[in-house]
């Protein structure tokens, strides 16, 4: 921090800007309301510029995501932040997800690991879209996010913007290339799927523009900033109208009326897109979004899945 203080970058990340919802606020008219987001990865920190202007790292301007390492200096307006990365010296070797093709495996070592036809993609598939798919590690779990058409998980296509969990041995197909996912430790392949652990507490804070969602898992807090429509979706799921109760399925018609109160054109397709985006945001914040935001079998309802003992708070202001 410029004043010598430190701000820990937890799983939910740190937002810098001049908006009241930011974790670090800068009173400067030259920066955006939400100017930059810092998110921890396996062994580094990812910087994502959110405003119109690039963010300088070590004197070089960046308009797209960039991985930061220990000692990097971030310049925003006239403020300079220094990244300090604490190392784990416990000696434990965490499980590592990989994707393999034709006898070669690729370790997923950073946030937003991409597969596609671009020169900057981590695994390059000739003839496919740039950044066609993105892989996210969430604790011990792995998720795939499709950024375009033509991405398949096992035998099912993944729609653009959708996020799906990936299990041991699952197949990711892009074009003619099939990659197989494996979870490895020092002892070799460990065929496991991540357990679904519901939060012990959920707090949704409603702000003037957008809001903040905080979730606690075994005492560890994860937070994310949510935009207005996603905020309305969370609000109706966590504080549904009577006689509905939190944790139960809320009918789509109720959600559509609450999220799009002045539109008679919004339909289930719009709701599905919104759910995809909310799940993606949760995954990017280190939370199992598809397990928490659940669609009713056959459609017709959506719920925020919680345990019977989960404490839920929806706070205005």
Protein described:
By secondary structure, the chain is mainly beta. Helix content is 13%, strand content 38%. The chain contains four helices and 28 strands. It has helices at 228-238, 252-259, 268-284, 289-292; strands spanning 14-17, 24-25, 36-40, 45-49, 55-57, 60-62, 66-68, 73-76, 79-82, 96-101, 104-107, 113-116, 123-124, 133-138, 141-146, 151-153, 156-157, 163-166, 171-174, 177-185, 188-189, 201-206, 211-217, 220-226, 250-251, 293-295, 301-304, 311-316. Strands 10, 11, 16, 17, 19, 20 and 21 form a seven-stranded antiparallel β-sheet that branches. The chain has a five-stranded mixed β-sheet with strand order 2-1-3-4-7, with no helix packed on it. Strands 13-12-14-15-18 form a five-stranded mixed β-sheet. A hairpin with a 2-residue loop joins strand 10 and strand 11 (104-107). Mean pLDDT is 82; it is low at 88-93 and 187-195.
Largest pleated sheet: 7 strands, antiparallel
Distance N to C terminus: 27 Å
**General form:** globular
Q: Which structural class should the secondary elements be placed in?
A: mainly beta
Residue runs with pLDDT of under 50 for 5 or more positions: 88-93, 187-195
Share of helical residues:
10-25%
What integer value in Å does the Rg equal? 20 Å
């Amino acid at each position: 921090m410029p004043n010598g203080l430190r701000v820990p970058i937890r799983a939910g990340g740190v937002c810098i800007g001049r908006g009241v919802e930011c974790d670090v606020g800068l009173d400067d008219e030259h920066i955006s309301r939400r100017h930059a987001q810092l998110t921890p990865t396996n062994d580094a920190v990812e910087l994502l510029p959110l405003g119109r202007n690039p963010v300088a790292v070590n004197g070089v301007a960046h308009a797209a995501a960039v991985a930061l390492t220990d000692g990097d200096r971030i310049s925003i307006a006239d403020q300079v932040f220094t990244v300090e990365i604490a190392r784990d010296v416990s000696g434990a070797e965490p499980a590592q997800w990989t994707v393999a093709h034709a006898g070669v495996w690729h370790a997923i070592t950073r946030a937003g690991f991409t597969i596609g036809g671009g020169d900057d993609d981590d695994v390059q598939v000739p003839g496919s879209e740039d950044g066609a798919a993105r892989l996210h590690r969430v604790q011990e779990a792995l998720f795939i996010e499709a950024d375009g058409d033509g991405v398949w998980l096992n035998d099912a296509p993944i729609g653009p913007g959708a996020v799906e969990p990936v299990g041991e041995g699952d197949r990711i197909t892009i074009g003619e290339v099939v990659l197989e996912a494996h979870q490895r430790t020092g002892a070799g392949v460990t065929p496991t799927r991540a357990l679904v652990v519901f939060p012990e507490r959920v707090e949704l804070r409603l702000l003037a523009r957008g809001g903040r969602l905080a979730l606690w898992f075994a005492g560890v807090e994860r937070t994310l900033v949510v935009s207005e429509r996603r905020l309305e979706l969370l609000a109706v799921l966590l504080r549904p109208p009577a006689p509905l109760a939190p944790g139960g399925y809320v009918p789509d018609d109720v959600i559509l009326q609450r999220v799009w109160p002045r539109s008679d054109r919004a339909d289930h397709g719009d709701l599905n897109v919104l759910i995809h985006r909310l799940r993606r945001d949760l995954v990017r914040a280190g939370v199992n979004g598809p397990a928490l935001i659940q669609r009713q079998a056959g459609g017709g309802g959506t719920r925020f899945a919680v345990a019977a003992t989960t404490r839920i708070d929806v706070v205005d202001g």
